[in-house]
Write a structure and sequence with these properties.
Blueprint (H helix, E strand, L loop, with lengths): L28 H34 L11 E6 L5 H10 L6 H10 L9 E6 L4 H8 L7 E5 L6 H10 L5 H8 L2 H7 L14 E5 L4 H22 L1 H11 L3 H14 L6 H13 L11 H10 L16 H4 L24 H8 L8 E4 L5 E4 L2 H9 L5
Antiparallel strand pairs: 1-2, 3-4, 5-6
Length: 390
Amino acid sequence: MSSGAGPTGRAPKKKRRRKKRASEPPAGPAQVAAAPRRSLLPWALLALGMLALGASTFLFALYPAEHGPGSGKAAEVTVAPHMAAEELAGALASAGLIGSPRLFALWLGITGGTRAIVPGKHLLTDDASPRQLVARLERRAGGGSVRVTFPEGWTRFDMAKRLQDKQICGLRDFLDATTDLALLQELGIDGDSAEGFLFPATYDLPFDSEAHDVVRRMKREFDRRWDLLSRGHSAALNDVMTSTGFNVRDVVSLAAIVEKEAAVDEERPLIASVFLNRLRDPAFHPKRLESDPTASYGCVVEPEKAASCATFTGKATAAIEHDPDNPYSTYTHEGLPPGPIANPGARALEATMSPAPTHFFYFVAKGDGHSTFSETYDAHASAVHNGGKR
C-alpha cells in the first residue's frame, strides 16, 4: 500500500525557512560622516596644543627679550606706589619705552605683577627689552650696568651730568641727593653737600640706579681711600691738623684746591705747602689763599650771590676773583672757602696730608704745566713779570 514514503520508509524532511534577524537600518549620510570627524579630533587637539605652545614661547621667552622700540634715548618715568600693571604699561608707552601697552601689561600680570616695582623716579631707555625694563624698575640684577669714570678734580655738577649721560640716574636727582641732609648725616659728612667726598674713580653702576645709592657708593670709596692714606701718613696728617685746627672736611677742602691748581703730580706737595705756609705762618697776613678755582666754584654753586657771576663762562675774571659777594673767593676772604670746591683724588689728598717741607708762599704757572715757586713777594713778582700766567 503506497503511503508516499521514500525507499527508506521515512517521510522527506521539510526545508526550514531561516528567520530574518532584525538588523540595523541602512547607514544614513550623517552616520557615514561620523567616522571621518572622529579621525580629525586628534589633529585638532594637536593644532590647539601647538598654538598654545607657540603663544607660551612668545610670551615667556621671545617677548621679554624683545629689543625696545627705540635706539637708546633716555626717558624719565615716575612710578606711583601700588601702580597697577595697566597703569605702568600706559606710563611706559607714553614715554616711548614700549610698543604695546596691552601686551606688556598681560606679560607683567602673569609673571609677577608690580609688587616688586620700586616707586619713584626712574631713568630708563627706549632700547631696553621688557625684561630689562622690569629689572631696572625693580632695581635688581638683570637690568644691566655701565662702567663710568670720574676724573680727579671733578665737581658734583660734572659728575651729575655724566651720570645722566650714562643713564645711571637723573642729573637733578643726583644733585638733590648730594645735599640731602639726612643722607649727609648718615654718611658722616659735616657740611651742606657731599662735594669733596665723592671719590673720583671708575665704577660699575647699574642702569637706573637710585641716586642716594650712588652717593653712598662713592662715599664708601672715599672712606676706604682716606683710611689707607691716613694710616700711611698718620704723623704728618696729625701735624697738619694740629697746627691748623683742621678737621677732615678742612683737609678735603684744601686737597680740592691743590687738585684744581696742580697740573703735574710732583708739584702737588709743593702747592699744598704754599697754602699751608700761608695759613700757619703767623707773619703772613692777610691769610688769603688767592686761588682762581675757588672763585670760579662760587659762580657754579651760588651764582645768585655775586653780580660778577653774571658774566661767568667757566673761567674766573678779575671781577669774579675780587668780588666780596662771592663767598668762595679766596682773594677777598681769608682762610679756606666754605667747603670743598671739587672732589680730590688720592694724590691730592696725600699731598695735603703730607706736604713738602718748604718756605714757599707763592707760585705762578709758567704755561708748560709747571710752576715757579717763591719764598718772597718780590721773587714772585719777578716770576710773574718774566712770563708767569698769574
